[in-house]
Amino acid sequence: MRGSMFCGGDLRWWMLAIFFLCTLIAAAEERVVTHLPGFQGPLPFQLRTGYVEVDEDNGVRLFYYFTLSEGSSADDPVMLWLSGGPGCTSFTGLVYQIGPLSFDLDSYMGGLPKLVYRPESWTKVSNIIFLDSPVGAGFSYSVKEQGYNSSDTKAVSHILVFLKKWFDEHPEFLSNPLYIGGDSYAGMIVPTVTSEIAKGLKIVGSKPTMNLKGCLVGNPFTDQSNFDGPSKIPFAHRMALISDQMYKSYKKSCRGGDNRHQSIQCRNSLDAIDECVKDISEFHVLEPRCAYASPHQYNVLKLKTSLGVQKMQQLPDFTAEGLHLSEISTEQCYIHCLEYGQTMPQ
Asked: To the nearest whole number, what is the mean pLDDT of the chain?
């Protein structure tokens, strides 16, 4: 999900964030990060970063940020957090949603953005793995080009391999309660990952045995045709974004709210509603719509044969030496979400 903080000139925040976060990637093994550019002093929480190889044939490696609980990391739950898109970096979860960092938007006057501690972070009570998935999202990458061919099914498979290997490297967390979470398009991924883990737990003698407790999704993409799309119209009416008359016309012409079988009258009602709310952010109705985040109609259900990596914004070559990049090249640092055809049934 593209956050409303990225509107207009705030694109520089995203670029600068990618600049300094590339400094975290110096080796494949897990590293402890104590300082970040833009944050004054040492971090008041424990942050680790690393890679896990999930496809040896193609050299697919998924990048993660691991924030330990500020409570009791030995006992508190472990949560895997996936971002939406599909194909957006989990950095959004770390600094814009549930993580312990955020940008100081009010005092920004140009230059390197200032990072501040977010006291209401979910890391107060949980250990969180923010995973860049699928391959190509954030700092996750593939050595071979064919490794970037992806789908929902393959993304789920990679996540399961990631969890298996991550717990192999972190056996001290194996008994902690495990939750799978995410937002937006992760609503298609989280339930499947959770289901596959649950199936594995039923296999007698399977190792390791993850202590799966549940899953959670925020503003999830689930079924665009039958639920996600139609549900926005009653919401718009309850929020007084469309008139009673417009809503009644929609209910009458669209068979009580069934958008699947559209008559000309139903289509006209839907077009009128679209025109009415076109300048309102669907992610936060009190904030302006991000013009550059959705420059054209995006159909998440469109089919593609392979993963298309958007290279509209990349790190310039001169940053490579200063940021000490070793595992990935500057051409692999992207700020845009990826696009690929979804393959799971609605």
From this structure: 77
Residue 242 is classified by DSSP as: S
Pairing mode of beta strands 178-183, 212-218: parallel
What's the pLDDT band for 22 if we cut at 50, 70, 90? Answer: low
Helices (H), 172-285: 190-201, 229-238, 244-253, 264-277
pLDDT bucket at 300, cuts 50 / 70 / 90: very low
The 8-class DSSP code of residue 202 comes to T
- Hunting for tokens 């929609």 — which residue is that? 250
* CATH no. of 4-221+300-332: 3.40.50.1820
Residue of 100, 91, 97, 70 lying closest to 137 (CA atoms): 91
Backbone phi, psi, residue 87, to 5°: 100, 20
pLDDT band at 204 (very low <50, low <70, confident <90, very high): low
Query: What separation, in Å, do the N-terminal and C-terminal C-alpha atoms of the chain show?
Result: 19
Contact between 191 and 154 under an 8 Å Cβ cutoff? The reply is: no
- The token pair at 233 is 């119209």
For 250-294, the pLDDT digits (tens) are 888 887 666 666 788 888 988 999 898 888 887 778 877 765 444
CA 116 to chain centre: 21
Contacts of 12 (CB under 8 A, 6+ apart): none
Q: Where in the chain is the domain with CATH 3.40.50.1820?
A: 4-221+300-332
Which 8-state DSSP code applies to residue 146? Answer: G
Rounded to 5°, the CA angle 82-47-147 comes to 45
Q: What is the pTM (predicted TM-score) of this model?
A: 0.73
CA dist 281 and 4 (Å) reads: 7
Residue 278 carries which side chain, given as an amino acid letter?
Answer: K
Dihedral of the CA atoms 65, 71, 76, 77 (nearest 10)? -40
The helix (H) or strand (E) run that includes residue 218 is: strand 212-218
How far is Cα 1 from Cα 85, in angstroms, rounded to an integer? 5
For tokens 């976060």, the residue is 21
